[in-house]
Design a protein that fits this description.
The complex is a heterodimer of chains A (about 160) and B (about 800). Chain A is about 35% helix and about 15% strand. Chain A has about 160 residues and is α+β, with helices and mostly antiparallel strands. Chain A starts with a strand and ends with a helix. Classes of the chains: A alpha+beta (about 160), B alpha+beta (about 800).
């Protein structure tokens, strides 16, 4: 076990982690932040995407002990003060959700994009989420939602 | 909001839960004392299990139970009870579960699995469904004759690998072929593919000391899980409780029953501690079921005018190791297997055949994606042979009111119109006009009249198919489709509307919303029928067999129709109760009353009114006397008038309703790479009545993209020993955001169905059907090359366009 300090959704966390734990395991099984999903455990589907120092990562590929001192943001941190973000609202309004299992990871990838590029083009949106698999929506409403949120958030 | 309740666009009611990560899926749940299960799977496609040594695994610290097939003398299955819970003395596919462990952590369970020693004696694998039919083929199920199924509805042949032989005979196909001007015969193939729900199969079970079982599971059909488990274990249904929380995609792969019996028995073996299993992605591919493969042979006879006079069809379904669900795919695709065409003479054999591969189950379209690959490719090839435009050829033969289907069902004005669907997509894709910009003459080829008269379909011929040297060819293609819900003739649904003190309504049904939006559209129907604001309908999300009313299964695009009809009846029942109480309270007759927006009032004197809050828990007179009581509306619906089909001729009424559709695509083929870019996909469906337009569009766009997966990207690949080579999302590609069409345009035709709620029909599966042949037809129209096997991968397309280049 290994003692680490990190920030998760702006809250400080101090915890002993097993060397074998992934960040995904720490979030879901230990910190009970189950909004982040496991779709493959191998970095192939993007369902477990979280922000690590503002960058999107597959949390199944990051070891928990590596995030010592890091700032982590998960889907649970997206609705500040309980209010849905423009991005979350756009996902609902544009029909960008069906089963919802890819949605948290998809929103985190989109959030990372909008943080570094508030005015993305459609191609940039597609590039940002091309590592996030969705089997239900056909992606078109997801791209529309992210572009719509970008317009709202930057206006 | 009571306006536009039917036909408007209401945002899905599960949106907030899903965008905040607070929607709870089965794998998000933990129970006190819960154990974690892992599976040992077979490394052989076909092998006798001579012995299993579990001693070392059992001795590992933290291991609470180890089970093998020898511990579990049960078989489960929906239509054919052929599936052991763990391999029973014989492994029938690579990936089949052979042993299972429950331990205090996933790591320990995984470690224990590695300590289990299995002594296998490999047997000859059976990897080709056609070869499985040969007399000397090894038998996958030597005991087939002893398995339970409804004989007569299903026809297994003991001593062979045939799990079901569906026969259909209409008219006299053989005689009719003698009258044909042209006879065109072709063979087609569809490989096995996977559903790939983003959530892998997950089940938690708790066998309680009292002898009852509680299950939380990622299932499409809680009552089917309960029923099949009760049959398999010989327990009363009342002793089993099945709860379905949020479900992360299903597409048919979570219908029927899967890991639930195993975790239940592990829980019992572990001393009544709850046990959870989450399938790994690898197991999702190789252990859980997939979609069946299909070998199809179609022989079509036409006269010179382009009417189809006769059709002979042979479908050989590669069921894989088990056919518990698969036998019904063979049956359902049999009775609709000639497509939406009026053909007087049809002979069909649809064989469900065991092989030693992962087994097939329901998958969006239930056999129709596969069979329409054959039918709609064949129709274009027949049109080509007749030198006739493919749209014009179809229009001569498509079903219309007054025609009869191949099972003898009469088409009426309420059945829906495949012709309108085809007209709409042809118009929208500008059928007959050449493609834009760098287009070859694919569009003109689509019209037919400029098609080369005698060009063999596999050789690019006359240089009029777009300029090869530029490397890209644009072309259009079309295809039509139909499908009816495949279900037993006595399939039933029910609904309960339970009023709360504040006159909101708890709506209980057992159809699962795994993303398709049923919860929202059914809430709209409930609000409309109760004449109450949408916001006052509280749809109960979790389905729980202890509390929710019965439903057969959430499959077959049937729930908006059957669930909707149950809700309409429940609303009538609730409204009648409200009027009865109000009538007594207001001293009028019940039929003098009307309801709206949660108020019951006298029609002639609307000021004489009662708010629902004063009625739905019972009405109290001023003196304290009370009448009525809590209002609970109840409604149920059972499919009426359906029949079993004649086992020899396939004649009868199998279908509650038919949903028709058509696709038109414009594609660009890169002849240098074999890459296909879909520029535009237009898809029309006769849904009868749109209940929620946004959700309908969502089904179409998502279904079309899944169809593109089947068309271009997806297939199971095996080595010679039958080992699945691509059980991962790296090696098995589903479409990403970069693989989708530039534009998808859904079109809804509304020919009301006389029995559906507001005239509606289901449309969940249909968008996926016939996407592959529409693309293949476009490839032919652009290049003159006909491809008869899926997927239309760059490799296959390139090799077809460059016959000189052999596979490296």
């Amino acid at each position: 076990m290994h003692l680490i300090n990190l920030t998760v959704n702006a809250e400080e966390v101090r915890i002993e982690v097993d060397d074998r734990w992934t960040l995904l395991y720490l979030l879901r099984e230990v910190l009970a932040l189950t909004g982040t999903k496991q779709g493959c455990g191998k970095g192939e589907c993007g369902a477990c995407t979280v922000l690590l120092a503002g960058r999107p990562v597959d949390s199944c590929l990051v070891l928990a002990r590596e995030v010592d001192g890091c700032d982590i943001r998960t889907i649970e941190g997206e609705a500040a003060g309980g209010e849905l973000s423009a991005l979350q609202q756009a996902f609902i309004d544009e029909g960008a959700i069906q089963c919802g299992f890819c949605t948290p990871g998809m929103i985190m990838s989109a959030r990372a994009l909008l943080m570094r590029n508030p005015h993305p083009t459609q191609e940039e949106v597609e590039e940002a989420i091309c590592g996030n698999l969705c089997r239900c929506t056909g992606y078109i409403p997801i791209v529309a939602a992210i572009l719509s949120a970008a317009r709202k958030e930057s206006s | 909001m009571t306006e536009n309740l039917i036909g408007g666009s209401f945002p899905r009611i599960d949106g907030v839960e899903k965008v905040t990560g607070s929607a709870t899926y089965a794998a998000d749940m933990k129970l006190p004392g819960m154990l974690y299960a892992r599976l040992l799977t077979s490394p052989h496609a076909h092998a006798t299990i001579r012995g299993i040594n579990t001693e070392k695994a059992k001795a590992l610290y933290g291991v609470k139970a180890v089970l093998t097939g020898a511990d579990l003398p049960y078989r489960v299955g929906l239509y054919m009870v052929d599936k052991p819970i763990l391999a029973d003395g014989k492994a029938r596919y690579f990936g089949e579960p052979v042993a299972a462990v429950a331990a205090t952590s996933e790591e320990i369970a995984e470690e224990a699995v590695k300590l289990i020693e299995v002594d296998y004696e490999p047997l000859e694998p059976v990897l080709d469904a056609k070869k499985a039919l040969e007399a000397d083929a090894p038998l996958v199920h030597p005991d087939l004759d002893s398995y339970e199924c409804i004989r007569g509805v299903f026809c297994p042949k003991g001593g062979t690998n045939i799990a079901n032989h569906f026969r259909l005979k209409k008219g006299d196909a053989e005689e009719a072929f003698t009258r044909c001007d042209k006879i065109i015969e072709n063979e087609f193939y569809v490989p096995q593919v996977q559903h790939v729900p983003m959530e892998t199969h997950t089940s938690i079970a708790h066998w309680r000391p009292k002898g009852n079982i509680e299950i939380w599971t990622s299932a499409q059909s809680p009552f089917a899980v309960r029923h099949l488990l009760s049959v398999a274990l010989g327990m009363s249904q009342s002793m089993i409780r099945v709860v379905v929380p949020y479900l992360g995609g299903a597409f048919g792969g979570k219908a029927g029953i899967h890991l639930e019996p195993l975790v239940a028995l592990l829980s019992k073996a572990a001393g009544y501690r709850p046990v959870r299993i989450v399938a790994t992605r690898e197991q999702e591919f190789m252990t859980l079921p997939c979609r069946q493969g299909l070998h199809a042979r179609l022989k079509t006879g036409v006269n010179a005018e382009g009417r189809i006079l006769s059709q002979e069809i042979e479908y050989i379904w590669d069921a894989g190791a088990y056919a518990d669900y698969g036998v019904n795919i063979g049956r359902a695709s049999g009775y609709s297997g000639a497509g939406p065409y009026e053909i007087d003479n049809v002979k069909m054999d649809s064989l469900t055949v065991y092989t030693t591969k992962p087994f097939g189950t329901a998958y969006r379209g239930f056999g129709h994606v596969e069979l329409f690959w054959a039918v709609e490719s064949q129709m274009d090839m027949v049109a080509q042979e007749l030198k006739m435009d493919p749209v014009e050829f179809r229009m001569k033969n498509l079903l219309k009111p007054g025609a009869t289907t191949i099972t003898g069902e009469e088409i009426t004005e309420y059945t829906g119109s495949v012709r309108k669907c085809l007209e709409e997509v042809a118009k929208e894709i500008k059928w007959g006009e050449t493609c834009g910009e760098t287009c070859g003459d694919g569009g003109a080829r689509g019209r037919g009249e400029t098609a080369p008269a005698d060009a063999p379909s596999d050789v690019p011929s006359d240089g009029r198919h777009g300029s090869r040297s530029e490397g890209k060819v644009r072309a259009k293609g079309i295809a039509v489709l139909h499908k009816a819900p495949a279900m037993p003739p006595n399939t039933a649904s029910s609904a309960i509307m339970k009023f709360n003190e504040d006159a909101t309504v708890d709506l209980l049904v057992s159809g699962i919303d795994y993303g398709q939006g049923t919860a929202t559209s059914l809430s709209q129907i409930a609000a409309h029928e109760l004449k109450m604001p949408f916001e006052r309908i509280h749809f109960i999300w979790n389905k729980d067999t202890d509390f929710s009313p019965y439903d057969w299964q959430t499959v077959a695009s049937r729930f908006t129709v059957m669930g909707g009809l149950s809700i309409i009846k429940a609303a009538e029942d609730a409204t009648r109760q409200i009027k009865d109480v109000a009538a007594e309270a207001l001293n009028v007759k019940p039929d003098a009353l009307e309801v709206k927006d949660g108020v019951v009032f006298v029609k002639e004197d609307p000021l004489l009114a009662l708010d629902y809050t004063d009625v739905v828990m019972g009405y109290k007179f001023d003196n304290g006397n009370s009448i009525g009581g809590p209002v609970i509306g109840r409604g149920s619906y059972i499919a009426e008038g359906l029949t079993n089909l004649d086992p020899e001729t396939g004649q009868g009424l199998p279908a509650l309703n038919w949903t028709y559709g058509a696709h038109a695509v414009e594609i660009e083929v890169d002849t240098r790479t074999g890459d296909i870019e879909i520029l535009k996909l237009v898809s029309a469906f006769d849904v009868g009545k749109v209940i929620n337009e946004d959700l309908c569009r969502g089904q179409v766009i998502g279904g079309c993209v899944q169809g593109i997966g089947s068309a271009i990207h997806e297939q199971y690949i095996y080595d010679k020993a039958g080992r699945l080579l691509n059980p991962s999302l790296t090696d098995y590609k589903i479409p990403t955001v970069k693989d989708i069409p530039h534009e998808i345009m859904p079109i809804f035709v509304e020919t009301p169905h006389d029995k559906g709620p507001f005239g509606a029909r289901g449309v969940a599966e249909h968008p996926m059907i016939s996407v592959p042949p529409a693309i293949a037809n476009a490839i032919f129209n652009g290049t003159g090359v006909r491809i008869k096997e899926l997927p239309l991968s760059p490799e296959r397309v390139f090799l077809a366009l460059n016959p000189g280049r052999s596979k490296p």
